[in-house]
Design goal:
Strand 3, helix 5 and strand 4 form a beta-alpha-beta unit. This protein has a single domain, classed as TIM Barrel (Alpha-Beta Barrel), CATH 3.20.20. By secondary structure, it is an alpha/beta fold. It is globular and about 60 Å long. The termini are far apart. The chain contains 15 helices and 10 strands. Helix 5 runs parallel beside helix 7 and helix 6 crosses helix 9.
Amino acid sequence: MSHTDKIAKIIEKIEENQRIDSNEALDLYRNADLLTLGRLANQKRFWLHPEKRVTYVVDRNINYTNICVSGCRFCAFYQPVEKGYILSKQELGEKIQETIDLGGTQILLQGGMHPDLEIDFYVDMLVFIKERFDIHIHGFSPPEIDFFAKRSNLSVAKTISTLKKAGLDSIPGGGAEILDDDVRQKVSPNKCLSKEWLEVMRQAHFQGMRSSATMMFGHLEQDFHIMAHLNKIRILQDETHGFTAFIPWTFQPGNTKISVKKKTSVEYLKVLAVSRIFLDNIDNIQASWVTQGDKIGQTALFFGANDMGSTMIEENVVASAGVNFMLPEAELKRLITTAGFEPRQRDCYYNFL
């Protein structure tokens, strides 16, 4: 079979809404043109979401500490113990109150791997929030949870149940980077391995918690690593059905220890489209306007994305790498509307508000 015939056959499978495997996804990524990928992803998006609605969430990204021993080469945010901060309860309370005053329904609570904090600190923080505020806590990415477990000599399952009991509602998909250990050893040598990241998510899903999944690409990975990452996410989703959404985003090289050329918007849209096509068991794909800016965020809505993510009342990690796109809710709604869609505010579980 000629190469052209092979691609035509893969396209035919997608058009008939059949599942493709990771080799076919890689073939498609390498050989199909951008607009074909966009058309197929858009078709998949409308098959899953026939309405012309695009969702978003009003929340705030609160980094409770920037002290981290992980030393990831791609991170421009972390600081050593002597230079970093831990938010006081007063600061935390003020940030949450401001979020609620701005119509926010959730906080994204993430920090670094602090060498001196044990599980009690996190339990205390969650209890403090829940006793004072009616807000959804989407918090602690898998590397954080894996780190807390090891630091406190607990199993991952016990760590999650302890955090859940204290008030943790759902888990963000951060820290996945690329789920391939050869790549992880190069970019984040002290962070949990791929199987550990997946195990945190598996245990959370088994306990009835939902989570998102992410992928940061454009650093030291090859294209086949991207497809392997998507495949691992899809296999776990077949098992647990716990992922609400998938968010691919591009590595921002500014102020980091990885010197690579920044990925183009075209490369981002290609990965986004293949993600929508391949992840047939994950309902929602999120556009990353935080790394891509508003225009490509809008374009992403025609390449498989049905969600614009968060209004990001505050964002520090990507901003530390020199990228600072901020959008108030009114502007996010305008972008969705002018792209021809109806904006709908949602909660963490993708229920309309």
